[in-house]
Amino acid sequence: MTKEYKTINEIKGPLLFVEKTEPVGYNELVEIRTEKGELKRGQVLDTSDQVVVVQVFEGTGGLGKESSVKFTGDVIKMPLSPDIIGRVLSGSGQPRDGGPPIVPDVSKDISGAAINPAAREKPRAFIQTGISTIDGTNTLVRGQKLPIFSGAGLPHNDVALQIARQAKALGEAESFAVVFCAMGITNEEAQHFMADFERTGALERAVVFLNLADDPAVERLLTPQLGLTTAEYLAFDLDMHVLVIYTDMTNYCEAMRQMGAAREEVPGRRGYPGYMYTTLAIQYERAGIITGKNGSITQFPILTMPGDDITHPIPDLSGYITEGQLIVSRELHRKGIYPPIDIRPSLSRLMNSGIGAGHTREDHRAVSDQLYAYYAEGCDLRGLVAIVGKEALSERDRLVLEFADAFEQKFVNQGRDEDRSIFDTLDIGWNLLQALPETMLTRIDDHLIKKYHPRYRKKE
Amino acid sequence: MEVGAGKVYRIAGPVVQATGLKSHMYDLVLVGEEGLMSEVIGIAGDKHVIQVYEDTAGVKPGEPVKETGAPLVAQLGPGILTSIYDGIQRPLPQLVEASGNFISRGLFVDGIDHKKKWEFTPVAKKGDKVEPGQTIGTVQEQLLIKHKIMMPPDKRGTIKEVHSGNFNVEDTICVLEDGTELPMIQYWPVRRARPSRSKEAPTIPLRTGQRVIDGFFSLAKGGTAAIPGGFGTGKTVMQQTLSKWSDVDIVVYVGCGERGNEMADLLHEFPELVDPRTDRPLMERSIVYANTSNMPVAAREASIYTGITTAEYYRDMGYDVMMTADSTSRWAEAMRELSSRLEEMPGEEGYPAYLGARLADFYERSGRVTTLEGTEGSISIVGAVSPPGGDFTEPVTQNTLRITKVFWALDSKLTQRRHFPSINWLDSYSLYDLALEPWFVENVSPDWNKNKRRAMEILQENAELEEIVMLVGSDALPEDQQLTLEVARMIINFWLAQSAFHPVDTFCPYKKQFDLLKAILQFRDHAFEALARGVPTDVILGTPSKDALAKVRLLEDYEPELAKVQAQMESEFKTMA
């Protein structure tokens, strides 16, 4: 299967149409050599007796009818070995750090088979990120996929970096790795990430895949698959707990739309292909824990909502697959609050299985519910104040309004390097609730108030 | 079974074209060296268009395509109950044994265990004339579920011999005069509805023990209902409550394109649920299909059909079956994806033009029927829809609402207020109302429907009043309207709200539902009568019996207490001035 063809009869966008004689497999890896000897790689999208359609990852620039095409007879595989930790690779898996190619212990098919639901373990181990709005009110558990929905110009990357730096399990020293996939981010952003990884030494336990904004869009379609294959290797072959951060899913979906258009497919909602749900699901669903394995994959996809619109197909479809979402709010950001995570529309669907006695602390659920309830009420009251003025509020309402402001300043707001333990987070919550009369703490059981309320604790 | 073979001509994603086949539409074929399970979905010239249920990476033109000469079938026989399947009826635990933690390709695993021996007890005897669907014998499949071994729907004859004893599902248990040997197992093409003698009118309610459902938006046995599966609306608790308390014999749950971790949760939790009526594991009368969103899209498309086929099989034994499909939107998306691969002309929002027809075909397989044998069985379907962006005008929701007769509008606002079940009483509806009225009149009380309508009117008025209250505050309302607000609050908090976790309140029999509502309405009549006499509202609203009424629903033996409260109410109002 090493026959080379010089039978390209059409080039359209990122697609090559090649005539051939040997049978070529679907999804097979293709090597293309330009007349100048430059090597490009591609993948078979459509294959029939006469013509093969190839999508070229590095772009079709420089290719002509005289270029040669070699079908490798194998699907795309990711070379893997423990040495991959600490490496920086391109969006198509080539070394980008000037280091040698990876000498594989094993090569894995990147398409990723589905985890058998019967082999899945229910995620229930608490991960402490050190960020109060996550740990306290939208708790992350191991094996979860929790995306950050953000907008252009918001500090979602800083939040992601802080999570990557600080995420840990309580009281256990376990081997932990970060897989970072950048898709279509700017050079500047990439430098920001790399500088931070180097500054904090995080690179030593990370694998980085970088596809920058000026790298070919098609390559982006490969990046998460390579990253997740690496994550599966680290998690299920090397027993590590892997945190996968990928940014920006919106660029990935744009690339998908671009390819769909080039292939003249029937478009779905807003021009995105009809299979976007399945394609996203295949990536997101590679998070999880397998019964009997020590490792786990937790995913933090970041996506910027075009026009801050949460009903846009990308966040909408993502929301139906992921287990909740963290919403980065422009309003909080404008107020100078970092991290500007708005807890009201945010949600962690797996929170309940990872909190409470034995995981965090017995009062976690109650405190979270109570904070949530008064913060939401306080935000609603702001609207009212704008109409009737603060003076028209009842005493109770004024307390709630003040609570909401204090909540943003003390609970939500924290330093970029501030790593709060979950107990600190809960105590900050209690201190805020202290400003309210005890009778207003309707969501918290009396025995928890007696045990954790600062008023009673001081007496001890 | 293999009747012929052809060759792969073209591959693009899950859609493959092949030449040299003689298969018919929807016949099952095995594609490539690995024998990937696939289905013929189109024939154009000399080429067959095939959808593959598994990933096609690496398949090459020229590889063989084997025919099986039969469509995608479900294996039907003892051993289905308690199973956990993927969309094409492969048992997931066995797949773990066969291929490890990830689902690999080209695996074939029987839907039911072909080796396991079952004790077969004949009911038909030598010389009997047997018709399609007639019971030949029985197998005790689970402690409480007797599995009828029936004549296949397309066979009849006279029994030459029938054996009793222990057999596996492939062993011959019965021979007909014409030489036909019958095993216990039946194969049935999933896309074809199993026949019944006749469909019956939806005149019997499906008892769920949930006041808001039974009382306001009741589902008929054999009926169809839709629930929106939005974020955090309490759908899961609702489905579990329905599975636990509905008066059905068999529960079929189809998880279609949902989250892996959620399915893992379900697979861990479902076997632990205990059937409250029998104290046996609920799993003993359940069948679960789990085809997560990342499993092949064609298998997702098939999962709904496989699920309903097993449901029909148990219906044919005379059982009442409830099927939950979660979510039909993911199923429709699978259709859309395959349709776009086939380069079909898209309809609304890219969905195929036949979306409505397919949804209708599926929901039409529900119903209360007289089986071929003359017994009565039913399939009720509860289908979840997940409208993108919560937009109910999108095609899947609209097409579903056109077919299903009941809509339970799960409302996240109610969830946030901790009101359960979070079924919005203003947006929900049931079109079985009129058909079920005679049953309630005959079996519960002649006043059932009258009271229900009165309660509904009060809630409707309450909604209008609440809008005014938002603007001017409740003190500004006239006294009679303040009373209405209070009565509505009683209906909402004492009657519509129901705790799924309270041992008594979780299930409420019809009689109790009726009595409780009647007592609230009595309070209303007394209150308005007192108001007319000139009693001030705060005196009326301060009656101690009102608060006593709130507790009655939590009592198992509620009748003496309710009678006491009612008597107290009488005397309180009598002495009120």
Concise summary:
Chain A is an alpha/beta fold and 460 residues long.
Mean pLDDT over all positions of chain B: 90
Number of strands of chain A: 22
Percent of residues of chain B in helical segments? 25-40%
- Give the averaged pLDDT of chain A, no decimals: 90
How far the N terminus sits from the C terminus of chain B, by CA atoms, comes to 87 Å
- Low-pLDDT runs of chain B: none
The total count of strands of chain B amounts to 26
End-to-end separation of chain A: 78 Å
Shape of chain A: elongated
| Low confidence ranges of chain A | none
Q: Overall 3D geometry of chain B?
A: globular
- The radius of gyration of chain A is 25 Å
Could you describe the 3D structure shown?
Chain B: InterPro entries: ATP-synt_VA_C, ATP-synth_a_Xtn, ATP_synth_asu-like_sf, ATPase_a/bsu_AS, ATPase_F1/V1/A1_a/bsu_N, ATPase_F1/V1/A1_a/bsu_N_sf, ATPase_F1/V1/A1_a/bsu_nucl-bd, ATPase_F1/V1_b/a_C. Chain B: Residues 110-191 form the ATPsynthase alpha/beta subunit barrel-sandwich domain. The complex is a heterodimer of chains A (460) and B (577). By secondary structure, chain A is of the alpha/beta class. Chain A contains 15 helices and 22 strands. Chain A has an 8-stranded mixed beta sheet, with helices on both faces. In chain A, strands 1-7-4-5-6-3-2 form a 7-stranded antiparallel beta sheet, with no helix packed on it. Chain A has a 3-stranded antiparallel beta sheet with strand order 13-12-15. In chain A, helix 11 (364-388) packs across helix 13 (422-433). Chain A is elongated and about 80 Å long. The N and C termini of chain A lie far apart (78 Å). The mean pLDDT of chain A is 90. With 577 residues, chain B is an alpha+beta fold. Chain B contains 16 helices and 26 strands. In chain B, the strands form 5 sheets. In chain B, strands 8, 18, 19, 20, 21, 22, 23, 24, 25 and 26 form a 10-stranded mixed beta sheet that branches. In chain B, helix 5 packs across helix 6 (328-341) and helix 11 packs across helix 13 (510-533). The mean pLDDT of chain B is 90. Chains A and B meet through strand 5, strand 11, helix 7 and helix 8 of A and strand 1, helix 1, helix 4 and helix 6 of B.
